[in-house]
Structures are given as structure tokens and as C-alpha cells.
């Protein structure tokens, strides 16, 4: 069995730079220009209470389902923390050459997501704006720190999964919202997230060829300890339970629609050329995925049983 010596981050940055440039050019050729203001029903807007002496927000004004309202809040607060994400990925990847060009391109595109979501929820009164602003202040004061620190391979692995998880969450929030306008807006955002995922997924695929053992370890660590970037939002656990029970984002979706497809794309289960460290990491990964699959099955079974009991009572 071959041995794969670990590479330092500076060497990895240099070796992967041509791939970054290639993927950046591919991304720019596929990304479509769009404008947040075109996805907001401005004619529905009216003044709020306060200096404008308008109408205070009331939950009856919200057209979206209660579950989608929680998901919209979490998703928007997550997008609001963009300055922290920019700082972290700029530190991990560095801001020179194609790396820096990509970081700035990604940041500019991500910024549109927060803009259009905030305009939508404000104009349509989907979310209490006072609650939203207080939550934004609290969440952003906490800031953002990556669980993996400044480890580059861990960083690329994390965003590969996180971008796809965000796409799934946005897309399912739109479908569950009960508002066709919300669905259309979040579908547009999800299309961006998918392109971002492809960039990072392809970049990590190249990293496997440069440092197979180190990359496998990074993937395993990230999968086993994965958290969405908004986990520091106040009440995140309670909101996550509501979102999961609604089928917007749950363990089954995380396993089947996020982790498994990317791992399959990287062909981690058939990958040759791993050293002892890489093989050990892959074994840990396989064991974790099996445990996650079992937990997902248990969760969905209990959810269906709970729904059946509610239906019988109702």
C-alpha cells in the first residue's frame, strides 16, 4: 500500500492554484447575472409603526407557513454573517491571485442572497422585523469562527458540504412556504449555491490527487463534526427541530441529499493509493455514515408515527 506524505498548506495553495483558476473561469461562464429587486413584490409593501407611524407587524400578516418562517429566519441570519465568512475563507485560502479573485466573487454573489431575502420578508411581512433585527444584532456580535480553524483542506471540505446543505435548505424552505413568490426567490438563491458547491467540490477532488491521505482525513473530520454556519443563532436547536419535523432539512436529507452524493462524486469508497492514515480515515467515515443512516431512519420513522397519531386525533 502506498504512503501519502502530508503537504504543508503553502505548497497545497500553490499546487491547487491552477485548479482554482480553471474552476473560477468555469464558474464565471455558467453564473447568470440576476437582480434582487426583481424578486421582491414591492407593491405589497406599506409603512411600519415607528417614525413612519404605519402599521405594526402582526403574525396574521405573514403569508408563509410557521415552519417556513422559522427556516427563513435561520437562513437569513446565516446569510447576514457574510463578513465573518469572508474573513475566514480569505484567511484560509489567502487573497492572492485566483484564490483572492474567487473569494471576492463568491462574497459578492452571496451578498445578493441576504439582500433579496431581507427585502422579501420585510415587504411581505413574512417575519417580525423587530425580532429579526434583534436576532441579527445578537448573532453578528457573536461573529463566526470555523470549527476547523485555518486548515485549508478542512475548509474546502466544509464548504463543499455546506453549500449543498444551504441549497437544499433554501429550496425546501421555498417549497414549504406556501407562497409562490418565496419559492421563486429561494429557487434563484439555490441555483447560486449549487454553482458554489460545484466549485468547492471540484477543488477538493483535485486535492485528493495532490494529498490523498490529508484530504481523506479532512473530509472525515468535517463529516463527523459538521454544523451549519448558523448554529450560534439564538434558539438554533429549537428552530432546527421545527425545520426537521417539517421535512425542510433533517438527518435523512443531510445523509441522502448532501453527504452521500458528494462522497460518491469523489469516489471515496473506491479510491486507490491511500496510505495508512487515509485508510483509517475512510474506515471512520464509513462507520459514521452507517450510524448517521440508522439515526436518520429512526428519526423519519418516529416523525411518521407522530404525524399518524396527530392525524388520527384530528
TrEMBL record:
Return one Gene Ontology term, BP aspect.
fatty acid biosynthetic process
Q: What Gene Ontology terms describe what this protein does at the molecular function level?
A: metal ion binding; stearoyl-[ACP] desaturase activity
Taxonomically, the superkingdom here is Bacteria
Please report the name of this protein according to its UniProt entry.
Answer: Acyl-ACP desaturase
Per UniProt, where does Fe cation 2 bind? 110, 163, 193, 196
What does the UniProt keyword field contain?
Answer: Fatty acid biosynthesis, Fatty acid metabolism, Iron, Lipid biosynthesis, Lipid metabolism, Metal-binding, Oxidoreductase
Which residues does UniProt call coiled coil?
none
What organism is listed for this UniProt entry? Actinomadura craniellae
Would you identify the family this protein belongs to, as annotated?
A: Belongs to the fatty acid desaturase type 2 family.
* UniProt binding sites for Fe cation 1: 79, 110, 113, 193
Amino acid at each position: 500500500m502506498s504512503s501519502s506524505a502530508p503537504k504543508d498548506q503553502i505548497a497545497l495553495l500553490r499546487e491547487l492554484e491552477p485548479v482554482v483558476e480553471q474552476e473560477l473561469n468555469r464558474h464565471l461562464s455558467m453564473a447568470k447575472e440576476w437582480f434582487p429587486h426583481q424578486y421582491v413584490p414591492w407593491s405589497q409593501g406599506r409603512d411600519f409603526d415607528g417614525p413612519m407611524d404605519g402599521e405594526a407587524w402582526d403574525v396574521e400578516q405573514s403569508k408563509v407557513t410557521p415552519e417556513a418562517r422559522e427556516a427563513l429566519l435561520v437562513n437569513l441570519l446565516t446569510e447576514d454573517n457574510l463578513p465573518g465568512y469572508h474573513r475566514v475563507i480569505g484567511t484560509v485560502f489567502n487573497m492572492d491571485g485566483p484564490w483572492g479573485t474567487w473569494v471576492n466573487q463568491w462574497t459578492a454573489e452571496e451578498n445578493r442572497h441576504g439582500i433579496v431575502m431581507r427585502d422579501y420578508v420585510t415587504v411581505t411581512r413574512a417575519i417580525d422585523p423587530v425580532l429579526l433585527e434583534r436576532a441579527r444584532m445578537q448573532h453578528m456580535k457573536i461573529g463566526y469562527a470555523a470549527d476547523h480553524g485555518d486548515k485549508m483542506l478542512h475548509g474546502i471540505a466544509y464548504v463543499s458540504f455546506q453549500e449543498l446543505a444551504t441549497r437544499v435548505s433554501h429550496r425546501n424552505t421555498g417549497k414549504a412556504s406556501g407562497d409562490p413568490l418565496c419559492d421563486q426567490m429561494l429557487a434563484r438563491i439555490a441555483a447560486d449555491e449549487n454553482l458554489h458547491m460545484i466549485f468547492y467540490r471540484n477543488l477538493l477532488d483535485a486535492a485528493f490527487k495532490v494529498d490523498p491521505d490529508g484530504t481523506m482525513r479532512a473530509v472525515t473530520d468535517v463529516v463527523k463534526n459538521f454544523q451549519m454556519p448558523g448554529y450560534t443563532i439564538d434558539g438554533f436547536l429549537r428552530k432546527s427541530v421545527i425545520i426537521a419535523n417539517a421535512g425542510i432539512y433533517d438527518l435523512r436529507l443531510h445523509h441522502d441529499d448532501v453527504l452521500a452524493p458528494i462522497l460518491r462524486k469523489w469516489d471515496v469508497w473506491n479510491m486507490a493509493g491511500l496510505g495508512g492514515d487515509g485508510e483509517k480515515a475512510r474506515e471512520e467515515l464509513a462507520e459514521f455514515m452507517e450510524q448517521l443512516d440508522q439515526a436518520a431512519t429512526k428519526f423519519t420513522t418516529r416523525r411518521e408515527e407522530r404525524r399518524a397519531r396527530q392525524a388520527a386525533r384530528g
